Amino acid sequence: MKDHLDQEVTLEGWVRHHRKSGKIQFIVIRDGSGFCQCVMVKAEVDEALWEEARKLTTESSFRVSGVVQQNPRNQKYELLVKNLEIIHLSEPFPITPKEHGTEFLMDRRHLWFRSKRQWAVLRIRHTLVRAIRDFFDDRGFILTDSPILTPTAAEGSSTLFEVDYFDEKAFLSQSGQLYLEPAAAAFGKVYCFGPTFRAEKSKTRRHLTEFWMVEPEIAFAHLEDIMVLGEEFMKHLVQRVLENCTFELEELERDTSKLEAALEPFIRMTYTEAVEKLKGLGSDINWGEDFGGDDETMLTKEYDQPIIVHRFPKEFKAFYMEPDPEDDRVVLGMDVLAPEGYGEVIGGGERASSIDFLNDQIAKHELDPEPYQWYLDVRRYGSFPHAGFGMGLERAVAWICKLPHVRETIPYPRMLYRLKP
Any idea where the Aminoacyl-transfer RNA synthetases class-II family profile domain is (predicted)? Predict the structure, then answer.
């Protein structure tokens, strides 16, 4: 609008709000890119046009022409209406300014994300998707798509969705990582970015059964390399949103100083140090136990910056993690925990490069070795140190937007008891 001040323009969109005040009508139009107030003055249009505009209902689609002007009181740009054409008069819109319950809104998710708040969240999600691709593409990573239908589990069979695949069983992918490791041997630096599925019967605010994950993998990289990359990556995402989503963050009333703090150096601590810290904060966690959501929340509320926790006990980490040569109780893994109580956003580390170790792990975890033989080929033919991580897009969106639940971070959320719309 600012590029067309005092010029006549035409907009097409939907009625966000319509207020009639004596001899003036105020119509807020949304066209997908933003919102604009259209001002119709009765004395400046003919009677037929005035009456036509009065028919407009919330979410009616229409075309409007007028002159762009700047409101002297709030400095916002608006449209002085010269002409208006109704394209479709909407039926009474079910979502109104009054309070609605979560189930009511989720049942109407296809309509709910027309609202300003949901519009802002999903535009920030789009910005993050572009930033993710730009980050890896600009650093020489090769996009290598991993399959969604897989014959094996990546991180344990208890959270797999099983599907019929002709005359055999298949599973919806939990992670693209196993397929990235062979790709790293071909291209050096690779990543995949797509939907993943976890059949966890969880109803927490952090879980979806279908979500998007980006996973980079780097040949000849170690734990330190991947911790540095993870920090650079998250800072890049935050910076991109701060630069490009000012209006959306304002709509969400997001305290941007909290995001700016994430541009400072991240906090680092070992799992052992984190457990001691948590005990001092009142947690009953013991060494060897995985963090619960409450533990992550407790820990992250102590710092303004994200926390990188590394060197976790091998008992609760994936079978393919490289053991720490200085302490065989732990593996060379790391998690990045977002501040403000949001917890794990990134998880990853160094992968085991020894075929003997991996065979022992497969047996220890009581996995069928046959489906993993192709994966073990990476260790048979030119084994090499390598490392990578995975970041769940929706958890990143939840933190950056400061949302109470991940269900608002994806257009059509899939949860334990939600499969539609």
Answer: 122-411
β pairing state of 307-313 and 267-270:
parallel
SS3 state at 234? helix
Token output for 138: 């600009």
Structure tokens at 132: 């993710």
CA 393 to CA 132: how far, in whole Å? 9
How far is residue 156's CA from residue 405's CA, in Å, rounded to a whole number? Answer: 25
Whether 392 and 400 have beta carbons less than 8 Å apart is answered as no
Domain with residue 212: its CATH number is 3.30.930.10
Q: Which residues contact 228 (CB under 8 A, 6 or more apart)?
A: none
Say whether the peptide bond before residue 413 is cis (omega within 30 degrees of 0): no
Q: What is the pLDDT along the chain (421 residues), one digit of tens a residue?
A: 999 999 999 999 999 999 998 899 999 999 999 999 999 999 999 999 999 999 999 999 999 999 999 988 888 999 999 999 999 999 999 999 888 999 999 999 999 999 999 999 999 999 999 999 999 999 999 999 999 999 876 555 568 899 999 998 899 999 999 999 999 999 999 999 999 999 888 878 888 999 999 999 999 999 999 999 999 999 999 999 999 999 999 999 999 999 999 999 999 999 999 999 999 999 999 999 999 888 998 999 899 999 999 999 998 898 999 999 999 999 999 999 999 989 899 999 999 999 999 999 999 888 888 888 999 999 999 999 999 999 999 999 999 999 999 999 999 999 988 889 9
Instruction: Verify that 329 and 274 share a domain, yes or no.
Output: yes
Same-domain pairing of 78 and 195: no
Token readout for 370 is: 């046959």
Residue 310 β-bridge partners: 270, 334
Kindly state whether residues 336 and 240 are assigned to the same domain.
Answer: yes
